[in-house]
Amino acid sequence: MFQVINAEFGIEKKRILDGAIAELLVRRLEADNSMSYVGWYSRQVIVDHIKQGHTYMTIIISGNWCKGADINVVRTNFGEYLRTDRNRTSADNLDNIPEG
Asked: How buried is residue 99: exposed, middle or buried, by Cβ count under 10 Å (0-12/13-18/19+)?
């Protein structure tokens, strides 16, 4: 099946610290439609990277990879959060990305 890809980077897994997302496993979309390993980055680094104009999506890798939802930064009175939807709930929401 054809996937419409609107992102440069994929988030595959998360690491939780004190009940909140601390780090995310990033992969980069290559010209041949493969996903290369980039590494683990802090949640704040990803927020800053998105604010600089880079695009992210959730991904699932099981042999091949599948696109999930686009990731956005949402600003509330309590801070900035990574969300797969644009509601203003004061929490990160990245679908059901597994811990790794």
From this structure: exposed
* pLDDT tens by residue, the chain, 100 residues: 445 667 899 999 999 999 889 999 999 999 999 999 999 999 999 999 999 999 999 999 988 899 989 999 999 888 899 998 766 677 888 868 999 8
Ramachandran region, residue 95 (left: φ > 0; alpha: ψ -120 to 50; beta: rest): left
What pTM did the predictor assign? 0.87
Instruction: Please list the alpha-helical segments (H only) found in the chain.
Output: 43-51
**What residues form DSSP beta bridges with 35?**
29
Cα 41 to Cα 27: distance, rounded to the nearest angstrom: 11
Q: Give me the helices (H) in 22-63, please.
A: 43-51
Q: How far apart are CA 26 and CA 59, in angstroms?
A: 10
